[in-house]
Write a structure and sequence with these properties.
With 283 residues, the protein is α+β, with helices and mostly antiparallel strands. It is 29% helix and 12% strand. Helix 1 runs antiparallel to helix 3.
Length: 283
């Protein structure tokens, strides 16, 4: 059931149906105050006078047999989620503009000036886990996030307040080979996923960690250790079932992949390191 929050009944029903059709999991929260203008890499700033944020979670977990030989993170096995999710968010914005003439709507997917996990919690679609990722009730943490910022208050669907997901569990902390979770807070500088995206030469310690993680791009170790993901059944967007690519190889085309933005040199470096070579042999 939707809360109308001043909208006409027909408008609220149309918005509710639109979001249910395009977004497997969604919720609405107030636009956060004090958001600064984004840096150039974030593209367009949020619309002036924004009132609400639609947060959407897009599941990407595939059947296990489609991960055979995988050497990249699961989210990168599927086609570029920025494109797939962006198309759905853009379609929603076009429809919203027709429903609310004169209002503004802007969408983001990953490259957002907004604190996505924090807003997803506020919108009621999940809770932050100890590994710093959003954990949803239906899909675990195997989701990517996107949002629509609106100058009109959007109808909210009724959702229960989800309980804190972790309790005393520290399995992700124990499993993380780099100690990124050991200090009680997420240390982004030590995260293997971030390390796999780092440009330039890696230190001997960083190379050893990359080999230990056995992933050329991204890292799923903390998610694989999480009990909340044990019961997560595959439920990917249909777009994600098209041409999954679980193994990255030297010289492979990067077109249409989530890691293409970083460029071939970083990926080639990671492939060589994971194959056992050191950076001193790459020069």
């Amino acid at each position: 059931m939707a809360r109308m929050d001043g909208l006409k009944n027909a408008q609220a029903i149309a918005v509710f149906a639109l979001f249910d059709r395009l977004f497997p999991l969604w919720g609405v929260c107030a636009f956060p105050q004090g958001v600064e203008a984004p840096s150039k890499r974030f593209g367009e700033p949020p619309p002036a006078g924004a009132k609400a944020v639609l947060m959407a979670a897009f599941p990407y977990l595939l059947p296990e047999e489609l991960y055979a030989g995988r050497n990249i993170s699961r989210y990168a096995v599927v086609r570029d989620y920025h494109v797939a999710c962006g198309e759905r968010l853009a379609e929603a914005c076009c429809t919203l503009e027709a429903l609310f003439p004169g209002e503004e709507f802007g969408w983001y997917c990953d490259n957002s000036p907004l604190p996505e996990v924090t807003l997803a919690e506020a919108a009621g679609i999940g809770r932050r886990g100890r590994h710093n990722l959003l954990i949803t009730e239906s899909y675990g943490s195997w989701v990517v996030l996107g949002e629509i910022v609106s100058t009109v208050s959007l109808p909210q669907n009724d959702r229960n307040i989800l309980p804190a997901p972790c309790g005393g569990c520290r399995l992700c902390v124990t499993a993380c080979p780099s100690g990124a979770l050991a200090g009680g807070e997420f240390d982004r500088s030590r995260c293997l996923s971030r390390l796999s995206q780092k440009k330039g030469e890696l230190t001997a310690e960083e190379q050893a960690l990359l080999r230990k993680g056995a992933s050329v791009w991204g890292c799923d170790i903390c998610q694989e250790a999480c009990p909340r993901n044990v019961a997560s059944a595959p439920a990917p967007l249909p777009e994600f079932l098209v041409d999954p690519l679980p193994r990255l190889r030297q010289g492979a085309s990067l077109e249409g992949r989530a890691y293409a933005w970083r460029g071939a040199d970083v990926l080639a470096r990671n492939l060589r390191i994971c194959a056992g070579e050191t950076e001193q042999t790459l020069n």
